[in-house]
Structures are given as structure tokens and as C-alpha cells.
Amino acid sequence: MELIAISVYGLDRKGIVKNISGVLAENNVNIVDIEQSVLQGVFTMFLIADVSRCRIDLDELITQLKESGREVGVNVDVSPFKRPETKKKNLYIVTVLGEDKVGIVHRISSFFYEMGINIERTNLTARDKLIAIDFVVDLDDEGAKKKIKEFIEGIGMDVVIRPYREEKSKRLIVFDMDSTIVDAEIIDELAKVAGVEEEVKRLTAKAMEGELDFKSALKERVKLLKGLPVEVLEKIYNEIKLTDGAKELIKSLKESGYVVAVVSGGFSYFTDRLKEELGLDYAFGNELEIENGRLTGRLKGRIIDAVEKARIIEEIAKKEGIAKENIVAVGDGANDKIMIENAGLGIAFNAKKALKEVADGSISKENLIGIASVLKLKNEFKKRF
């Protein structure tokens, strides 16, 4: 093949692609690669074309292409093209999220350059003050992912790194509830009413950090709630707030075809209510035992700890016919570690260090809606730079 590179750029208008491709077709020139986009009203297109069977000489072809471009108000540049030697690439998408900062693209691209990492593609979108930048990069060294996370978090941004691959049509996303979908630790709210807040918080912190066996810690905390009237559960549900962006994110996930679940070490009274309010497909939590309208201080049935969370997710995926690589897990504590590790994409949300270390990326409390950009949802970040 005898290849040429054709660059087309100018203000966007109808007929540009038709004109340029028409000249090539009329002269028996085959397009072997093409990429076209419109950014802020500016049209750009890059083509690689095979001219080995062109009916006219190259100079005449270039003249016709430039004339065709002038007819629709764009510039056309043509140059010889030789394919570089290719090697198998190990492509990843590095999504950077946070508040916009002057020079942020330069800082990150400079870091990649210093590490010897090639950027294959870059895309930036914005939603209000939150920006999302996708870098498609070739990573040969597994250790590079850790260095990238440390650098991005060090400049005050969130980052998620995942393999570059074709998206599948059916996908599952699983959220933790407390301090993830809900902006509270519900058991702490119950403890305030019961007058045992400090004792429960101490046990909660130890469990979240992985310093205390979850089942034992949960049983001890629930025991402290003995005697609370069931009306307290309703009152607390009405008072707790969803994490900023949670409702919008779940709506967009549903519209994009995701199966959405909450699997929590919290309580089923609240997960069931969230399922109803948010239109979730699945909701699982631990069941509080109630007798004569009051909590007994005991749990009913199985206890959902880290292992049980992972097992429930496997059950959902099997039932829905969803492969492991198409599962996304989002959580904040030690009880989420196994589901984060097992998922195709594991995201640590406002999380402790232990969870960040096993996750594919981490997102800050104020950036939950950024998951929409990571997953390229239908209604994500409609405002563009």
C-alpha cells in the first residue's frame, strides 16, 4: 500500500465529510482509517488513505482535495504516511476527576512524559465545577498504576484506572449503603437516640478499619440498641440524606441499562426503603429483630459481612447472566474489600487507606457523580468545554 495522511480542519458545517470522501471515492482511493470530531464548533478530521490504485497522479489528487475543502470552508493538508512499527499495547483508561484547575492537563501529561508513558487519546468533559479527563495510555509496568494514583491524589484530584476494552451491553453496579449512597452511618444515628453513641462509634471505627471482626462488632453494637422503639427507624430514615449526586447517578445508571444493587452490612429496613425510593433492582441488609414494637438487640438470619457481600454479588451476577468483568463495586470500608477486589472495576469511595490500596481508583465524597463519567453513562457531563 502507498499511504497518505489527510488533515482537514475549519469551522463546522454540513457537507465536509461528503466532499472530502467524494474526491477519494471518485479517484479510487481507499480510506483505511479515519477519526473526526467537532470541538467548540471547530471541525477536525484525520484520514489515512491508500493511493496505490489512484486514477490520477498525487499532485492532482491533492489539488482536488484542497479545492473540495475550499468549497465548504475548511483547510486540507496532505503528506506521505508510513506506518510505524507496532507492538502489542496494554491500554488503560486513566480517568481524573475533580474541580477544574489551570494547567491540570499539562501537569498530568508532563508526569506521563517523565514516566515514559505514551498518551494515545485524551478527552475532557465538564459538569458544573467538576471536570473529568480521560487519558488512554499504554502501561507496560503494573507498578506504574500505583505511581499514577499517588501522583494524581497528591495534586488533589480523584483517579480511577481500568483496562481499555469494549463496553458490554449488560452490566451490574453494586453500592455499599452507609457513607456511600447514604451520607451517614445509620447505626451511629440509632445509637444517638439510644444514648450509646460513643460506644457504638468506637466499635464502628474498629470494624471499618479492619481492626475488629465485623460479625462480632455488629452483634455488640446491635446489642446496645436493645429497647429502641421501631418508630425510631422511620424517623431516622426520613432525616438521613442521600450523598450528593446519588439520586442523579442511580437514575443515569438505570437509564443506561445497568442492574443496580445495594448490598450493605447495615440494616434491611433502610436498604429496602432505598430500593423503593430509588428504583433499585436489588437490596440486601442485616435484619434487626423486633418484638412488641421494640428492637431486641439481636439480628435475624444471615449476617452480611465482607465474605457474604461477595457471595450475594456472585448470586446476582449469575441470576442476571453478567460476567465478573462487567461488575462495578463501590464502597468505603474494610467490609467492602472483597467485593472491591473481585469486581471488574472496584472504586473506593471516600475510603480508608486499606481499601484504596486494593481498588482500581478512589473518588472523594463530593465527587460521587463522577462515576457517571468513569462509566460513560448516557446523561453524563452534558456540558462540554
UniProtKB/TrEMBL annotation:
InterPro entries named among the record's database cross-references: ACT-like_dom_sf, ACT_dom, HAD-like_SerB, HAD-like_sf, HAD_sf, PSP
NCBIfam families noted in UniProt: HAD-SF-IB (TIGR01488), PRK00194.1 (NF001220), serB (TIGR00338)
Gene Ontology process terms (BP): L-serine biosynthetic process
Recorded GO CC terms: cytoplasm
Residue span(s) of domain ACT: 5-79, 93-162
Pathway named in the protein's UniProt entry: Amino-acid biosynthesis; L-serine biosynthesis; L-serine from 3-phospho-D-glycerate: step 3/3
Keywords attached to this entry: Amino-acid biosynthesis, Hydrolase, Magnesium, Metal-binding, Serine biosynthesis
Cofactor annotation: Mg(2+)
Region forming the signal peptide: none
CDD domains the UniProt entry points to: ACT, HAD_PSP
Organism: Archaeoglobus sulfaticallidus PM70-1
Enzyme superclass (EC): hydrolase
Residue numbers annotated as active site: 176, 178
Keyword check for Zinc-finger: no
Membership in a protein family: Belongs to the HAD-like hydrolase superfamily. SerB family.
EC numbers, comma separated: 3.1.3.3
MF terms in GO: L-phosphoserine phosphatase activity; magnesium ion binding
Name the UniProt record assigns to this protein: phosphoserine phosphatase
